[in-house]
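for the writeup, i need someone to sanity check this before i put it in the appendix. the sequnce is what the collaborator sent (i think, or maybe the updated version? ugh). structure was predicted straight from it, no edits. if anything looks off just tell me and ill rerun, i have time this weekend
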Amino acid sequence: MLLYDNLYSSKHIKRSSYFKIPFHESKSTLTEAFNKGFEYSDCITDDARLTVLNAADAKRLGGDINTRTIVKNMEQKKGVWNIEVMNTISNETKYVQAKVVVNATGPWVDSFLNNHSKQTKFDNIRLVKGSHIVVKKLFNHSYAYIFQNGDGRVFFAVPWENEFTFIGTTDVDFIGDLDNFSA
């Protein structure tokens, strides 16, 4: 919870807290075996809208926005990234420079760096598979639950779209081809 509390700074989101379940509004969902809990705030975003707004803000601040463009190669020298990019419509290649590169390739983060950077090899990310189901709403409040098994694995139950509960876990390592997988 320390991580959650330090990832954001907002007067609109409550910080984490400890509570006694018998006095908390979520108590009706839990058995008497549980007597204490922790509460923290999390958020969901519209990732497409967030991306567009970030790009618009960057342009407003003087940044160049290159849509439909892929990175062909990149290398850091003396604190500056030299990046070869190609427009996927015109096939035009150009070079750009940046002080900072944000790698937002999701699960492809290591393979992207290994295929496009001359820096050292990267193998930093642990990919996991999730198992999830959506059922009719299980409780009449907006709190989500994270339960921990005795072996350390966790699963969660999260209110979803006002009428459902999203239940799942992400505790199985994914080994395979990210470009060719199935559920």
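Residues 12 and 33 are 33 Å apart (CA to CA). The two ends are 31 Å apart (CA to CA).
thx in advance!!
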